[in-house]
Design goal:
This protein is of the alpha/beta class and 455 residues long. The chain contains 13 helices and 14 strands. It has two domains: 273 residues, Type I PLP-dependent aspartate aminotransferase-like (Major domain) (Aspartate Aminotransferase, domain 2), CATH 3.40.640.10; 110 residues, Alpha-Beta Complex (Aspartate Aminotransferase, domain 1). The strands form three sheets. The chain has a seven-stranded mixed β-sheet, sandwiched between helices. The structure holds pyridoxal-5'-phosphate.
């Protein structure tokens, strides 16, 4: 494709498109955005013909990798039959998908509200939790407890969960939704309690949830929400004590436990769902991304029949036009079939261990890496100005700008926020892809450390 056309299309993007969290003035100066035209496996090709390794598989969502035409085939087939559902009806792929989710998910999760994105799935979960309590005569329960640093989405309600905003601020959208309570995250590396062991961190952070429930009044709390392992803060894996304690605390006070599997679901952590590492069962589970490898928009909110039966003859006000789209459901079923048939969950475990070892080795050479953590193919490296004190880089250093430029120079599509480098490639990666990721990060850190004068 001719370069002139590339410039033309790039300029059109700068003029007409509003991209995720991207400043178009800055992009214009740095020759961005890249315009992608093709993808295969873990690699994508831009409009100049250059091929890149997509270290994140989109937004940690293209589990199958790019270019699986089987998904296109089933979508075409379903679209040729029926593309949508007339009011008050449903379709076969959607029914089958809900049944498949019931089969795959842990515990007694069995009834699914299909949705079109992860944020929406979490909005649905929170509405359900509140409506559930109301139907049981406890209308005072509206508060939601989440963990600092978690991310549960970007829409009106869920953006106030987790308190994740770092470089850009939520103050544009104030006032906050009422009843959002934030508790410490079980991240041993950055433990607010300075605990000596990961177990101590886990126990104190779980205890913080009970303290918050008691402080706010147990009869005012509707739910606790959390990701089994949280990506934005670099995928710290809680010690085994954490989730069982949280489950017990929720049960003790009649609080629902919502597990957000939008990023961890469908094999990302080396098990079908991240919460399976911790052997507890949620009341409500949300999922997105890997459910369809983001070939089309789709998400889901699944609950146990214990919760669902409350709504059986007293439904709640909730409808989304794109929820329950049969084309997306057919594509998701094929996606899950491929994940199962090609053992991608196991591959995530095996390659995840290999990749984590490679990244951990880099700590020996690179003093600005303070910690490497994660599980399966949900990994993170924390960057620090001083390894001993764990001091973060100041904003003026612009570590994100520096390292992201080097990732690009090394052929990696990978963006760090300057605090952590998160790594979450498609689940189809092989060992040589992992080597290429480690080598690219290694070379990038080398240049940045020289620029910083730490080498
Ligand atoms: C754990 C988690 N929950 C929810 C969301 C929001 O999903 P979506 O971007 O599809 O709205 C994300 C997105 O990254 C996520 O990682």
């Amino acid at each position: 494709m001719a370069n002139t056309h590339t410039d033309e299309i790039r300029n059109m993007a700068l003029q007409y498109q509003w991209m995720h969290n991207a400043d178009w003035t800055q992009m214009a100066e740095t020759g961005e955005p890249l315009v992608m035209v093709k993808g295969e496996g873990v690699r994508v090709t831009d409009s100049t013909g250059k091929t890149w390794l997509d270290v994140h598989g989109g937004y940690t969502c293209v589990h199958l990798g790019y270019g699986r035409t089987e998904i296109a085939d089933v979508a075409y087939d379903q679209m040729s039959k029926i593309t949508y559902f007339p009011q008050g009806t449903t379709t076969i792929p959607v029914i089958e998908l809900c049944e498949k989710i019931a089969e795959l998910t842990p515990g007694d999760l069995s009834r699914t509200f299909p949705g079109s994105g992860g944020s929406e799935a979490n909005e649905t979960a929170i509405k359900m939790a509140k409506a559930y309590h109301r139907r049981r005569g406890e209308s005072g329960r509206y508060k939601i407890i989440s963990r600092k640093g978690s991310y549960h989405g970007t829409t009106g309600g869920v953006m106030w969960l987790g308190n994740n905003a770092t470089d850009f601020s939520l103050s544009d959208f104030e006032p906050a939704a009422p009843g959002m309570i934030h508790v410490p995250h079980p991240n041993h590396y950055r433990d607010e309690y300075n605990s000596k062991t990961p177990s101590e961190t886990a126990i104190k952070c779980a205890q913080a949830i009970e303290d918050a429930i008691l402080m706010h009044g147990p009869k005012t709390v509707a739910a606790v929400i959390g990701e089994p392992v949280s990506q934005p803060i670099g995928a710290p894996v809680p010690a085994p004590e954490y989730w069982p304690m949280v489950r017990d605390i929720c049960d003790k006070y009649g609080v629902l436990l919502i597990i957000d599997e939008v990023i961890t679901g469908f094999g990302r952590t080396g098990k079908m769902f991240g919460i399976e590492h911790f052997d507890i069962h949620p009341d409500i589970m949300t999922m997105g991304k890997g459910i369809i490898s983001s070939y089309l928009p789709l998400a889901a909110t699944t609950m146990s029949e214990r919760i669902a039966e409350t709504f059986g003859s007293d439904n709640m006000w909730h409808a989304v036009t794109s929820a329950g789209n049969p084309v997306a459901a057919a594509a998701a079923l094929k996606n899950i079939e491929i994940i199962e048939n090609e053992n991608l969950v196991e591959n995530s475990k095996v390659q995840g261990e290999y990749l984590k070892n490679g990244l951990t080795e880099l700590m020996k050479k690179h003093p600005i890496v303070g910690d490497v953590r994660g599980i399966g193919l949900l990994l993170g490296m924390e960057l620090v100005a001083d390894r001993e004190s764990k001091e973060k880089f100041s904003k003026e250093v612009n570590i994100a700008g520096k390292i992201n430029k080097e990732f690009k120079n090394n052929g990696l599509i990978l963006q760090s926020d300057g605090n952590v480098i998160t790594v979450g490639p498609p689940l189809c990666v092989d060992q040589s892809d992992c080597d290429e990721i480690v080598d690219g990060i290694d070379a990038s850190l080398e240049v940045v450390e020289q620029q910083l004068g730490v080498k």
